[in-house]
Amino acid sequence: MSIDKAEVIVTSPDRNFVTLKLTTADGITGLGDATLNGRELSVVAYLAEHVVPLLIGADEDRIEDTWQFLYRSAYWRRGPVTMAAIAAVDMALWDIKGKKAGMPVYQLLGGASRSGLLAYGHASGVDLPQLFDSVRSHLEQGYRAIRIQTGVPGLKAIYGIASQSAFTGGGEARYDHEPARRGARPVEEDWDTRAYLTHLPGVFEAVRNEFGPDIPLLHDGHHRMTPIQAARLGKDLEPYDLFWLEDCTPAENQEALRLVRQHTTTPLAIGEIFNTVWDFKDIIRDQLIDYVRGAVTHMGGISALKKTLDYAAMYQIKSGMHGPTDISPVGMAAAMHLGLSIHNFGIQEYMQHGARTNEVFQQSFTWQGGLLHPGDKPGLGVELDVDAAGRYPYEQAYLPYNRLADGTVHDW
């Protein structure tokens, strides 16, 4: 009963992914996602040079003990690199435990609390006709909740708009599918918060007029507003009944969310760039958010994020786990198993991976009627085709960044 082999596999089918593959002495394998978009090789080095040597010979059954060992023995704790590496180990050990038990991981977490996971997709457009076409396409794909991102007049390229790759140096790949452009330097985009705040409420009014009051609509502010600007936007969007407003202001300044709360009843989702329960502790305790946006991949794995969500449940705060395509199919499967089992599930972000990614990562999940289910294969339900992975070597890529009209670097 020990880990006999640990491999760090980097592949770039539609984008760069980092996968940890553990093999036990009796040949059982487990996979973990360690992808940190735009900084992938930092986690590769941390795993290969510091973590893997500690895993050989370790007892694969001691998931909690291994987590605590990797977290506490490093002394220099937290941060995205460390926590993504620990997350990969944690996922891989849960995958192994499920395979040994002959059960899907969600059964080991207490069994299913629901029949499937409500998921939202990403509709976008540079203008209203394009946005409406995107919403219709998502409805046809079965989505029952939709995130709305739109272009802003006068800005040539901003976060989350699928059709703007021509402006940002992109080729065939959808911008929202992979905003990290491959190349030696990040692409510069532009931003104007005043123009955005003026334009966005009219967009949601048009979407509601076109598609009615019943579709849950979401929006991502992507950290670009000051607290008072976020408060204004939340209040302006109240007539359109958003499911949530995400990352309305940089949440490292946790006290800022108190100001936003004072001015709006629009639900708030925060935390996709957070790494531990300590990042969430105060804003959960003070009930300054409604949804926890943490990712299994970036929060130290299933074990750590489950504890965070159990804490959030005490305050009637729900999950809204990060799930775009910078989470590999392994990390996405882990999120599905966790979401299926917890009581305070809210919604799951779900962007569909490309055909090459699905060739590398063979998955057992289902998508039906707007609901995700991880499937009932033992473990996480994902297997890695090593030969296929080898056909897509790592390519350097960076996420974009913003500058204001006067040249000031701004949050993207």
TrEMBL record:
Q: Name one GO molecular function term.
A: magnesium ion binding
Every Mandelate racemase/muconate lactonizing enzyme C-terminal domain range: 129-267
Q: Which InterPro entries match?
A: D-mannonate_dehydratase-like, DgoD-like, Enolase-like_C_sf, Enolase-like_N, Enolase_C-like, Mandel_Rmase/mucon_lact_enz_CS, Mandelate_racemase_C, Mandelate_racemase_N_dom
GO process annotations (BP): amino acid catabolic process; carbohydrate catabolic process
Q: Which PANTHER family match?
A: D-GALACTONATE DEHYDRATASE-RELATED, STARVATION-SENSING PROTEIN RSPA
Checking NCBIfam families in the record gives: ManoateDhtManD (NF043051), PRK15072.1 (NF011654)
Query: What is the name of the protein in this document?
Result: Starvation-sensing protein RspA
Please name the source species. Microbacterium hydrocarbonoxydans
